[in-house]
Specification:
- 2 copies of one chain form a homodimer.
- The first copy, chain A, is of the alpha/beta class.
- Chain A has 3 domains: 153 residues, NAD(P)-binding Rossmann-like Domain (Rossmann fold); 143 residues, Succinyl-CoA synthetase domains (Rossmann fold), CATH 3.40.50.261; 164 residues, Rossmann fold (3-Layer(aba) Sandwich), CATH 3.40.50.261.
- Chain A has 15 helices and 20 strands.
- In chain A, β10, α5 and β11 form a beta-alpha-beta unit.
- In chain A, α1 crosses α6 and α11 packs parallel to α15.
- Chains A and B meet through α2, α5, α8 and α11 of A and α2, α5, α8 and α11 of B.
Chain lengths: 464, 464
């Protein structure tokens, strides 16, 4: 299966069954996602048009002489069985089945149809993502096999998201664009014909070298034990975090309607995820913040954190957030404290949390404080805070210049560099996800991500 | 005091004592904030230059023949007493004292100097914001009397922020730009010479008609009782929410260094704020989200909420978040339920939370469902969720068209319209803060803001 999925996610050629020139059809938007973006060969299939999105169109899959690795299917539900037979007969390696109208609808005909395609898939040994999915985006190899072309604007990086909801996938994908979360893959499971969490988790951990951290959005599963067993067997190889719906009774019953499965008692899920080495988080933003931080920084080896702030207020807020998150302020050694005292004039708080305000216009000293603190044995990670106005532009540029060899400390630095949009874009963005530093929007979110990084490491390494 | 503050915040003329052409001086940035933005008369004061930012410069305040309403002072600390005497002598109505180096520094000379300026201010009956402040921005009347010119990019609206930290003010101001929070005023107290929370709260509630909701960031106060008494005397007039630092022992001791006051036992604060009718929130984003929602929508009259979602996943997430936030799903009347059944094809969840997915391409029906639910007696507010891809552009445009007379229901609609940045800008933004609808970035944040709106209303109206 892993080999098949590798081909499905990085195909040499893609056929779009139901490609269209009509904006109101999903086949139009799938073409929009591929054309000008995907570097392999694209085959639009539609019996009515000769040219689709400027490419030669084919009446059917059988009319194509070349091999097809991936078929994206967007034709109406009743035409899907035939389309799958054609795929199987032609040796297509994998299918993304966007079409809806299967198990998820009230009409029992939907379930019958889903059983039929499941049998066809088994007959040809054909992996199918979907039905009832928006598709997937492989940012690492430039394949956007979805009806949302904007996902190609997500930066390339190490975060993979497997989602049981297309809506949540869109929410997270758009947040990723806005907040600089760099991703490897974004995939929506749909009805999980024969590709489910366990298959994708195994593929991402074992086969996909571009993925460094795996984020899951889970509603409910028919066989939760299978996911948990696979996760446990892979434990320690890559960090896995999960965002779980169905915590409330109502959310739970909504899940049953939506995906045909009960989300199940949340307390049981909570324990089972921990047991399998998966960290559960509470919100979409927490999922992305944590994944972004893990992708960019080494995990902290303990819970002792230094807070370095260029203004007292944000430092206080971060200090307040530490303990409820399970972290504590580290204790500087005498040597560290003496060095900080030298670097800061005698007007500020020089103990942890350090108020670097008085060194505000001295980027060299600020970076020197950061390095000194990172070098302290009791420091497991640093929360680094600075709210910039345009007056601080030179300072930020100086910081980018001086921020070298931070990576060599092998400790995470989570920064909140708040800056006016527009000024932000240039020098501050240059510090995000570089040299072991990651930026998040607020001090509270920085602290929560740091705590989650520690917990992920703890769960990964825990003895079974 | 209220009259003096009204003049200070909406001056007819502003003098900048210490104006500069040098980028490295704060006097440069204060001028940048005013020039081309402020419509009154600007008087740069600097004995060395003839022209500053293209305007005629004056050697001293005494050289100006016109009346000066507001003086912004950025000269070094030792020159401040003389500058204040000149202001008092000339009949200046109010001062923003940006200069630092007073009570906040370790050197006892700072406190001596602060006592001196306090006496001068008392002598002339001169309100002073600061010292050690970045200033204020009055978006309602276009006065940016701060060293951060980018704050002028915040949209004009009804949210006023009073902050005890310049850093947090910057964090919130930049978040406001990014997240469409429309503000009336942004003010940083600094060392609170003679203008403190009570004075500003009273002014904003009693005098400032542009302010509809007041957000506070509090660290610690010398006389907390005074703020609480003023708040209680004004209770019920305008919603007040507070974000309080110093919850932890360390945050607390940092506050003592920073502002010379203990933040104090948080449990006591928590109770006292409630008692005074002020809602406490936990994060910067929660403060802004709640204020934004209150500014744009009527407060819910109860805790019964309808969730309308265009995808099942986000609807489940919102349902999960309701109960922990103190809200519950409302129960539709038979009439309401019948109407929804007519508007949605029989393939979806039509009970609360409603999955509007099957009406996805029918904006008229979606808005009709919204109106039906708003009209139900048991509905106190609506959470409205839709994750848009570019394929949904026409739908969004249709929604803007059909979304009329929502306001007449006098119930809040908090929406999460997630959309790819760029596509978002046009039609979706057109729905934000219009017609009784406000948008927030995630389903969880939408629910939390709705819960806070209800709590604010409860605290405002509670019998003393």
């Amino acid at each position: 299966m892993n080999q098949k999925l590798a081909r499905l996610f990085s195909p040499h050629s893609v056929a779009v069954v139901g490609a269209s020139n009509n904006f109101d059809k999903l086949g139009y938007h799938v073409m929009k996602s591929l054309v000008g973006n995907y570097r392999g060969k694209i085959y639009p299939i539609n019996p009515k048009d000769y040219k689709i999105w400027g490419l030669d169109s084919y009446a059917s899959l059988g009319a194509i002489s070349d091999n097809i690795d991936l078929a994206v299917i967007v034709v109406p539900a009743h035409m899907v069985p035939d389309a799958l037979h054609l795929c199987g007969g032609k040796g297509v390696q994998g299918v993304v089945l966007i079409t809806a109208g299967f198990r998820e609808i009230e009409d029992p005909g939907g379930s019958v149809r889903e059983e039929e395609i499941r049998e066809i898939a088994a007959h040809y040994n054909l992996p199918i993502i979907g039905p009832n999915t928006f598709g997937f985006v492989n940012l690492s190899s430039g394949v956007n096999a979805s009806f949302t072309s904007e996902f190609s604007r997500i930066e390339k990086g190490g975060v993979a998201l497997i989602s049981q909801s297309g809506g949540i996938c869109h929410l997270c994908g758009f947040l990723a664009i806005e907040q600089g979360v760099a991703m490897s893959k974004l995939m929506s499971l749909g009805n999980r014909c024969n590709v489910d969490f366990p298959e994708l988790l195994s593929y991402l951990v074992e086969e996909d070298s571009t993925t460094r951290v795996i984020a899951l959005y889970i509603e409910g599963l028919d066989k939760p034990r299978r996911l948990l067993e696979v996760a446990e067997s892979l434990r320690g190889k890559k960090p896995v975090i999960a965002y779980k719906a169905g915590k409330s009774e109502k959310g739970d019953s909504a899940s049953r309607f939506h995906t045909g499965t009960l989300a199940g008692n949340h307390a049981i899920w909570k324990g089972a995820l921990r047991q399998a080495g998966i960290l559960e988080v509470d919100t979409a933003e927490e999922l992305l913040d944590t994944a972004k931080a893990i992708d960019a920084c080494p995990l902290p080896r303990g819970t002792h954190i230094a807070i370095l702030s260029s203004q007292a207020g944000p430092g206080m807020i971060a200090s307040d957030a530490l303990e409820p998150a399970g972290l504590k302020l580290c204790r500087f050694s005498e040597v560290t404290q003496e060095r900080i005292d030298q670097l800061l004039p005698p007007v500020a708080i020089r103990t942890n949390p350090v108020d670097m305000g008085p060194a505000w216009y001295n980027p060299k000293n600020i970076i020197e404080i950061l390095k000194t603190v990172l070098g302290d044995r009791d420091t497991d990670g640093v929360i680094f805070l600075a709210m910039y106005a345009s007056a601080n532009l030179k300072l930020v540029e100086g910081m980018v210049e001086y921020m070298k060899s931070i990576e060599s400390f092998q400790k995470p630095v989570i920064a909140c560099f708040s800056a006016p949009p527009g000024v932000w874009d240039e020098p501050v963005k240059a510090l995000d996800r570089k040299k072991g530093v990651v930026t998040l929007p607020t001090p509270e979110r920085a602290v929560l991500a740091m705590a989650n990084m520690w917990k992920v490491g703890f769960l990964m390494n825990r003895k079974r």
